[in-house]
UniProtKB/TrEMBL annotation:
Its main location: cytoplasm. Keywords: ATP-binding, Cytoplasm, Kinase, Nucleotide-binding, Transferase. This is Guanylate kinase. ATP binds at S20, P21, S22, G23, A24, G25, K26, T27. It is found in: Cytoplasm. It catalyses: GMP + ATP = GDP + ADP. CDD domains: GMPK. Belongs to the guanylate kinase family. GO terms for cellular component: cytosol. It comes from Bradyrhizobium jicamae. GO terms for molecular function: ATP binding; GMP kinase activity. Its EC number is 2.7.4.8.
Length: 217
């Protein structure tokens, strides 16, 4: 699991998790990150929920039925999985392992249940970021503007938001998404700083030894 650092120092790939209640802007922030951070690859989850208008199979999710999902669980193909809004969601293991070993960092848009499981399995490699909406009114407005879900589904998501919010303290970083550009800058700073953490930079000893040899000459 080594990634070539931008400065030539090898490092381990990291697993960058963004969680938030639906409608806090996490999907927009994920897209912005993927556009501007070429070393980052999205983990595409499997889900049993119905495809929404505009979603693409294999890009947004792998849409599967319940028996297929259960088979994936039984065969150990999922790194983590959880029930969210009565549907099953899970992270396919193989693409994540392939990306990490190809030296890429992986971005996850998963809920608190999945984040806990990922952290239990790979704590040092997991960076957990929780996105908060600035207010309940803002959250509701975004859910309506998205116009993908019925009023009933939106009410369900609002009530679930209260529950999801209670998990904020299980995350390493909290970003309040008052303004999407500011929130993006904060999330990007977290990623950049985490990439520089000494423990991940497996090539540092060698790099510093080389520097020392050069200095001794
Ligand atoms: P949505 O249906 O709006 O796309 O996603 C609903 C919730 O499921 C979001 O909070 C999202 O983060 C979460 N989710 C999506 N994929 C996964 C996954 O693979 N595992 C887990 N644990 N949660 C997921």
């Amino acid at each position: 699991m080594t990634a070539g650092g931008f400065d030539g120092v090898e490092r381990r790939g990291l697993m960058f998790v963004l969680s938030s209640p639906s409608g806090a802007g996490k999907t927009t922030l994920s897209r912005m990150l993927l556009e501007r951070e070429p070393g980052l690859k999205m983990s595409v989850s499997a889900t049993t929920r119905a495809m929404r208008p505009g979603e693409v199979e294999g890009r947004d999710y792998f849409f599967v039925d319940k028996p297929k999902f259960e088979k994936m669980v039984d065969q150990g193909e999922l790194l983590e999985w959880a029930t969210v809004f009565d549907n099953l969601y899970g992270t396919p293991r193989a693409p994540v392992e392939a990306a990490l070993s190809a030296g890429q960092d992986v971005l996850f848009d998963i809920d608190w249940q999945g984040t806990q499981q990922l952290h239990q399995k790979a704590s040092v490699d997991v960076v957990r970021v929780f996105i908060l909406p600035p207010s309940a009114a803002d959250l509701e407005k975004r859910l309506h503007t998205r116009a993908q879900d019925s009023d009933e589904v939106i009410r369900g998501r609002m009530s679930r938001a209260t529950h999801e919010l209670s998990h904020w303290a299980e995350y390493d970083y909290i970003v309040v998404n008052q303004n999407v550009d500011d929130a993006f800058a904060e999330v990007q700073s977290i990623l950049k700083a985490e990439r520089l953490k000494r423990e991940r930079r497996t090539g540092l000893t060698e790099f510093v030894r080389k520097l020392q040899r050069q200095l001794e000459k």
